């Protein structure tokens, strides 16, 4: 299956026009009255429980949670965990049919198919049309992200942010070593080689090497060289493009990555780059705030999408979403929190803290533009996000129900090459055998 | 008191304590029975289950990850156990014989096992980071080459064994110290009168007399070591590759990350059987060395 591409502006127009047409007809019908009669206090006194992943979005939005309670009279009970622990708790709760969790954060590109097939998501389609405040503007949320969160015509979550891996690189080191801004994958490798010779105390290139985390960054390389995960219903890691991507990523990390690259995830990468000990870091756009903490990297960093391969630039673009449990006994009140957290006002406020909004309108906001203009790195970050929004692919791992498990096999194949334990042919063949089994599993 | 009233009191006692007994037994038995039941079922990625008999157990035999997990579990078990017993006995002897150690220093020496394993794991993860950690900084500052520690497929098991030894050798030391304090002084007095050296006294008297205590410590540590989880989960998550993927970590990931609850349950039942067998063997050993 080819990677899902974000529609270009021309492709978006008919959809946007149809959405507007529906909106206008709704306004003209009697339903419009209910929209204008929307009452934020309709569920006053109720308590909604929210299972949250401890990431930049949740940290920022929860700092405003008192405002939500003031506006709605709804008490928000928050349980925050690290990503993996949140998922483990969530799956236990959902599988047992418990109504303990009303709202949860979800990554449609990872568990979307699995949770949708299990019937764990409430369908939010009707809520977005009939139970919204006049200022909500659901149509203003990126249609491509909405589509990525829609399974079997059911909207499973409302997009909260836009993110994807970006290449952060040190302009001062590049200048000192006589390296131009990379425009191709080969340039990135050549730059790493030059940095290794020119600045021996600095890690030339850092990216994710921890097995379950590799798929997030590796998928971008695979798509840039023209590969995809499944061809004719079979796993395609051993296709020429698949092997090329595995070799490129594994060799780059082994030869130019940090010592112990096989245990690297976002935490180590951001810490290494922020401390000035890496010349390039291929890490999530979400990490901008963390990387810029302390201000040391504000003036010597440029941010770009991963440069092109044979198939051009196909960046990975995904987003967290806010979903309501199908087992929730308070779906209506839970929707109020979802709506508030994904409203234009809140998403603009979060954007000013470095959480990229899924609403294109935020980029045109004057206050946001002023924030962007404060530092050149923010401008290049926004430009890179624009590329993600226009050309991004949401294929991270295999587009199957067992997507989380597929990421493990991808990670294993890349690690085998990264650690020099297997040649690429052997590594991809072992992964393809296991992945074919996963694809066949219902 | 008549015979009839005694019977009546007995029945009352049984009736009153029955709910507590039933509840306690149910609380212990239910998770085990439920896990066994799950092990006989197969579940789809969406959680739908169907009875599959012994399919999950026959799958174990053909699963390379299972055999790797078994190898890693036992490699870690044996290495950690040897290190912890040696270090624990040494520390116990030190605490027993050194009268000059202050109470504070004694407390400090035995404090690591009071630290939550998650905290210990995070602490060592930072210390052993190959690029930013203190461990390599110290090695390099004394002219030694840096190590990849937890990120090296070769060194990850010894490194985790060392972390666990740092944490649990003091616990072994406390048990051994208790044993040392209960040894009969008359045997030592006789040996000293006969002119035996300190090393000979240790090898010929202390160690044999301590064996039951040492085996008890080994039994207690075996249960933890065979189901080793927390520090590995925090530091490596079973990696790099599968180099530290113990059976417990593997079973957890299969169950909670890949949602294959049936197979995960079969793995856990198998692991429980291994732990039980190890404890039974060590208990027989303890009986054999008892004095």
TrEMBL record, chain B:
InterPro entries: MetI-like (IPR000515), MetI-like_sf (IPR035906), Sugar_ABC_transporter (IPR052730)
Transmembrane portions of the chain: 12-34, 74-96, 108-127, 155-180, 201-220, 261-282
Protein name as it appears in the record: Sugar ABC transporter permease
Coiled-coil portions: none
SUPFAM superfamilies: MetI-like
Keywords recorded for this protein, A-Z: Membrane, Transmembrane, Transmembrane helix, Transport
Subcellular location: Cell membrane
GO biological process: transmembrane transport
Pfam entry (one): BPD_transp_1
Topology class, membrane: Multi-pass membrane protein
GO cellular component, one term: plasma membrane
Species of provenance: Phyllobacterium phragmitis
UniProt key word Phosphoprotein: no
Main location: membrane
Domain (ABC transmembrane type-1): residue spans on this chain: 70-280
Protein family according to the UniProt entry: Belongs to the binding-protein-dependent transport system permease family.
């Amino acid at each position: 299956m080819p990677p899902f591409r974000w529609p270009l502006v021309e492709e978006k127009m008919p959809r946007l026009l149809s959405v507007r047409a529906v909106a206008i007809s709704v306004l003209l019908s009697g339903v419009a009255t209910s929209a204008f009669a929307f009452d934020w206090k309709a569920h006053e006194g109720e308590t909604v429980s929210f299972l949250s992943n401890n990431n930049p979005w949740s940290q920022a939005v929860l700092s405003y949670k008192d405002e939500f309670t003031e506006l709605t009279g709804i008490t928000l009970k928050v349980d925050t965990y690290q990503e993996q622990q949140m998922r483990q708790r969530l799956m236990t709760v959902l599988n047992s049919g418990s109504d303990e969790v009303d709202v949860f954060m979800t990554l449609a590109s990872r568990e979307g198919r699995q949770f949708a097939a299990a019937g764990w998501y409430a369908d939010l389609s009707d809520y977005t049309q009939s139970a919204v405040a006049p200022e909500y503007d659901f149509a203003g949320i990126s249609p491509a992200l909405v589509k990525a969160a829609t399974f079997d015509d059911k909207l499973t979550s409302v997009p909260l942010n836009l993110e994807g891996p970006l290449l952060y690189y040190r302009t001062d080191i590049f200048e000192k070593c006589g390296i131009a801004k990379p425009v191709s994958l080969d340039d990135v490798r050549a730059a790493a080689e030059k940095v290794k010779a020119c600045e021996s105390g600095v890690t030339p290139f850092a990216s994710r090497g921890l097995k379950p985390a590799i798929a997030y960054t590796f998928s971008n390389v695979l798509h840039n060289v023209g590969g995809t995960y499944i061809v004719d219903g079979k796993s395609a890691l051993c296709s020429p493009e698949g092997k090329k991507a595995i070799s490129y990523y594994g060799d780059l990390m082994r030869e130019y990555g940090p010592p112990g690259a096989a245990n690297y995830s976002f935490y180590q990468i951001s810490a290494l780059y922020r401390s000035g000990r890496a010349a390039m870091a291929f890490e999530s756009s979400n990490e901008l705030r963390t990387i810029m903490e302390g201000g040391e990297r504000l003036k010597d960093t440029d941010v770009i999408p991963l440069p092109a391969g044979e198939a051009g630039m196909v960046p990975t673009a995904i987003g967290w979403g806010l979903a309501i449990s199908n087992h929730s006994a308070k779906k209506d009140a839970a929707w109020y929190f979802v709506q508030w957290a994904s409203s234009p006002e809140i998403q603009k406020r979060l954007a000013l803290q470095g959480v990229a909004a899924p609403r294109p309108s935020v980029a045109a906001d004057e206050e946001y533009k002023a924030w962007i203009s404060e530092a050149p790195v923010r401008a290049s970050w926004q430009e890179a996000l624009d590329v993600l929004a226009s050309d991004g692919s949401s294929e991270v791992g295999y587009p199957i129900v067992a997507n989380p498990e597929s990421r493990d096999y991808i990670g294993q194949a890349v690690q085998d090459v990264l650690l020099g334990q297997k040649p690429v042919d052997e590594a991809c063949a072992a992964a393809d055998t296991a992945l074919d089994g996963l694809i066949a599993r219902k | 008191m008549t015979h009839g009233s005694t019977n009546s009191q007995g029945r009352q006692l049984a009736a009153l304590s029955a709910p507590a007994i039933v509840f306690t037994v149910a609380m212990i038995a239910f998770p085990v029975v439920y896990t066994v039941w799950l092990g006989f079922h197969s579940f789809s990625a969406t959680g739908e289950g169907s009875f599959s008999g012994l399919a999950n157990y026959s799958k174990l035999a053909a699963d390379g990850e299972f055999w790797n997990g078994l190898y890693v579990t036992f490699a870690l078990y044996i290495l950690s156990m040897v290190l912890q017993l040696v270090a624990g006995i040494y520390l116990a002897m030190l605490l027993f014989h050194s009268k000059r150690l202050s109470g504070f220093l004694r407390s400090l020496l035995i404090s690591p096992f009071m630290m939550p394993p998650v905290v210990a794991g995070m602490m060592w993860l930072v210390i052993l980071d190959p690029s930013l950690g203190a461990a390599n900084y110290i090695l390099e500052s004394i002219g030694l080459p840096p190590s990849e520690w937890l990120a090296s497929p070769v060194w990850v098991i010894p490194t985790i064994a060392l972390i666990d030894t740092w944490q649990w050798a003091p616990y072994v030391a406390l048990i051994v110290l208790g044993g040392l304090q209960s040894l009969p002084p008359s045997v030592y007095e006789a040996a000293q009168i006969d002119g035996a050296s300190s090393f000979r006294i240790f090898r010929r008297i202390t160690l044999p007399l301590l064996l039951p205590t040492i085996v008890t410590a080994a039994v207690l540590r075996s249960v933890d070591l065979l189901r080793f989880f927390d520090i590995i989960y925090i530091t490596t998550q079973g990696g790099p590759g599968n180099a530290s993927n113990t059976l417990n970590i593997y079973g957890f990931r299969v169950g909670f990350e890949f949602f294959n609850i049936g197979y995960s349950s079969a793995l856990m039942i198998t692991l429980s059987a291994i732990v039980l067998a190890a404890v039974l063997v060590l208990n027989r050993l303890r009986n054999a060395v008892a004095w």
